[in-house]
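Tutorial handout. Part one gives the primary structure; part two gives the three-dimensional structure as tokens.
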Amino acid sequence: MTRTMSRRRFIRISAAAAGLAVAPIGRSVQAGSSLVTWHGTMLGAVATMQIHHQDRDEAQRLVQAACAEARRLERLFSLYLEDSALVELNRSGILVDPAAELVDLLKLSQHFAEVTGGRFDPTVQPLWTLYADHFLQANADPAGPPQSSVQTALAHVGYDRLTISPDRIVMPRGTAVTLNGIAQGYVTDKIVDLLRSRGVVRSVVDMGETRAIGSRPDGRPWKIGIADPDVAGRTAAILPIIDRAVSTSGAYGFRFDQQGRFNHLFDPVTGGCADRYRSLTTVSGSATAADALSTAFSLMSGPEIRSVLPRVDIERVHLIDAAGAAFDIVE
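Part two.
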């Protein structure tokens, strides 16, 4: 399998433009009297926080509290921690007395599935397993798994196969859930809520998805750079944001094959992989919505995206199509 970047991270904060310090992985760095920057990893993605606060010691405490909360949520949503609640659900098909946040996130996942006609679906994990197992084989057929195997996997896919209540979560044997297309945004929103409750009015939080609190200290927007999908290190566009979240999806994020025909963005209808756009970016007041819908919109045509926008909290969609042309869809 070919791995290009971490999952579908194709977005970066334009640190130089924002005047932010660069910190080593997993460490906090104090810059001046009002900025603490933290870099680390969360839910398998590069994570950052840049907190502006008059009291640097309090800013450090806020970073610690935010990281503790993010780690707590990671133990619910991760596919890679053997003792996570999600891993237990996939293993047994039932979770009794689930955490409120897991119930909330699964219900949100079903909501986004419904408004996108099933293009966002948290139960596509059987497709991931199928493609991963296929391309891990020696001399794997470059045409991908046989259609009979795809159809077998699709028989276990469907967001309506999940029964969700505060008491238990149940799904039939063979179904498996991934929250990789929404959990980073959800965790980002939870951290923003925590920071705001503690008086933070200017910050940038990225727990795999990016969300700004307020504006830069000088009142100008934060600048979010969208990387060029073809040239490493080049920025294709700059999005100015204040109190908004940004999420980008693209087939580049994880490729199973050298040719890049098969990627992690699965179509729950056909069992195939996204190929409409080189990248797709959503801007929203909610990192959760931005995350989920950047995934779903990657499988949808422009008119289909326009038809969904009035029903969701997405104000702008920036696309780079298969030919390399960039354009926007605005609500």
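Part three, for discussion. The first helix runs from residue 15 to 18. The CA atoms of residues 84 and 247 lie 25 Å apart.
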